[in-house]
FAD/NAD(P)-binding domain-containing protein
Amino acid sequence: MARELLLVGGGHSHVEVLRRFALDPAPDVRLTLISRDRFTPYSGMLPGYLAGHYDFGDVHIDLAPLAEAAGARFLRDSVDGLDLAAQRVIPHDHSPLTYDRLSLNIGAAPRLAAVPGAADHATPLKPIDGLNARWLALLERLQHDPVSKTIMVVGGGASGVEVLLAMQQRLQRLCRERGLAESLLRFCLVTRGPRLLANHNPRVQRRFARLLTRRGVALHSEAEVVSVGAGRVHTADGRTLAFDELLWATQAGAAPWLADTGLALDGAGFIRVDDHLASVSHPHVFAAGDTASMVNYRRDKAGVHAVRQGPALAGNLRASLHDRPLTRYRPQRRHLALISTGDRYAVASRGPWSWSGNWVWRWKDRIDRRFMARYRPPLPTP
Ligand SMILES: Cc1cc2nc3c(=O)[nH]c(=O)nc-3n(C[C@H](O)[C@H](O)[C@H](O)COP(=O)(O)OP(=O)(O)OC[C@H]3O[C@@H](n4cnc5c(N)ncnc54)[C@H](O)[C@@H]3O)c2cc1C
């Protein structure tokens, strides 16, 4: 009898699982993908999309044809509960579905609720097309009412810095094209710690600090935002900073519904998994990407880990369905980060090393495009 494999979330790991099932079908497995969105964004290219270097299709994987190629049923829906005893998932709009093996790759959720007022006044980074539409609407408004506006980003990690520089590049270019003064838009970055890009080496941090100064971005460091009101953020040390548009780019948290599932979770609410990417409490449930917390390795949440886990997850899901031994996955300790600056220029960061230039951006562009091409049917033969 066919065994049921249920994939929840169309994240960076599950697209690889689908690709591998497409290249090597398993006739005795019934595969179902449930994902909230049909188009899954590839994080590495999102800042380039905001900067205007890529269009929507360049930076999103269409899950429908990929699922079809894998012989999977695709349900566009959000899962908000599990019944682990009955081996069922509970989608929002469909009837519960049973599984023999379940895999969760649902990413992380913006943590707006942690700061009073943030949910009412701030825009999270994802979904990124919503964010894009919002900034373009701001430009329309400026056209009719050209008074200066302050765009504030809270969060000084790589994604906050990249998004700020990308938006600045795009909006300033559009201002020039529409005959508006660039100076109408002010940009500011608010970060809790003393330095930007806390997970990167001091050379990278200095490069970006200099770049922000050159680009006229006001940097507020050691400014932990503790509450947000209309047009104002308040910091722990008593500062009040004004904004017209607020973008929330702090570290994301776990999906709140996981807390009610009975799965073993870490202190931040992410699913604890072993070296096989299987839940430590429920071995028929697997998790990968941001939503997983490997108990034997501490790693930052980054798309690169989700991508690397994809092949191991695919192999272990298949092995587990056939009661074969699973393979251990060991995440790399350091990974290469290519951080773009909005203008087809990028900074490479790995451990203590750093390089930068237009050539780094072209290198990143080649890697990213090659990655995306893997998931566009017809899929390349193995
Ligand atoms: C602007 C920006 C730039 C970034 N740049 C980089 C970078 O250059 N390099 C890097 O390594 N990392 C980067 N990151 C981090 C990266 O985006 C995340 O680490 C990565 O997306 C995590 O991948 P994932 O597969 O775990 O989940 P995601 O890519 O978030 O995918 C989750 C999927 O699950 C679906 N889903 C969510 N909840 C549910 C639900 N309840 N039911 C069903 N489906 C659901 C979603 O629709 C989505 O398809 C960046 C992040 C941002 C915001």
